[in-house]
């Protein structure tokens, strides 16, 4: 991780910048409830992370991206859980420095520390638009594999095609 970067749990002060970044980079508009859940540890707030950057050692850190995720019961075993990556966004000048990968690693490392009796996290997954070749390559480089022979149809309402791959 570059010395200018930090990865932190999301706080209320990070939400306005994350909202702007998501609206700029992601094709899916997220409702206010999505951002409210970021501050709720029983919802998305437990494992979601902001990626921050300091231009100089004396400057205030600014939000340059983030990963929003939530714990869900596993589809294959109801006694275990999966981390669902709801959104991942990083401003382009900060890409290719390992920041998003470090944030994902931070999330997984934090999940490992959760009490297994209550969460028992077994997998991490996301939906990726079928036309998002950069995103699909990024996930594949981190060991994610596409599930199924066909993408999920009618996943995205405003995108064409409306399909997404599940990567796990």
UniProtKB/TrEMBL annotation:
State any GO BP term from the record. Answer: mitotic sister chromatid cohesion
Q: Which GO terms describe its molecular function?
A: acyltransferase activity, transferring groups other than amino-acyl groups
Q: Which SUPFAM superfamilies match?
A: Acyl-CoA N-acyltransferases (Nat) (SSF55729)
Give the record's GO CC terms.
NatA complex
Check the record and name the InterPro entries matching this protein.
Acyl_CoA_acyltransferase, GNAT_dom, N-term/lysine_N-AcTrnsfr
Q: Which Gene3D superfamilies match?
A: 3.40.630.30
Q: Which residues form the N-acetyltransferase domain?
A: 5-162
Q: Which UniProt keywords apply?
A: Acyltransferase, Transferase
Q: Which superkingdom is the protein from? A: Eukaryota
Q: What is this protein called?
A: Acyl-CoA N-acyltransferase
Q: Which organism is it from?
A: Schizothecium vesticola
């Amino acid at each position: 991780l570059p010395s200018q970067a930090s990865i932190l749990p999301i706080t209320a002060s990070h939400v306005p910048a994350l909202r702007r970044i998501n609206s700029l980079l992601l094709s899916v508009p997220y409702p206010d409830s999505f951002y409210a859940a970021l501050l709720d540890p029983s919802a998305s707030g437990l494992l979601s992370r902001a990626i921050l950057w300091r231009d100089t050692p004396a400057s205030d850190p600014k939000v340059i991206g983030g990963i929003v995720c939530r714990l869900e019961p596993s589809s294959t075993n109801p006694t275990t859980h999966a981390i669902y990556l709801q959104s991942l966004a990083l401003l382009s000048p900060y890409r290719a420095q390992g920041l998003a990968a470090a944030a994902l690693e931070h999330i997984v490392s934090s999940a490992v520390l959760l009490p297994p009796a209550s969460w028992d996290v077994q997998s991490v997954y996301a939906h990726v638009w079928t036309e998002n070749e950069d995103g699909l390559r990024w996930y594949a480089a981190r060991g994610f594999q596409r599930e199924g022979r066909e993408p999920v149809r009618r996943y995205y309402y405003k995108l064409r095609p409306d399909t997404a791959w599940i990567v796990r």
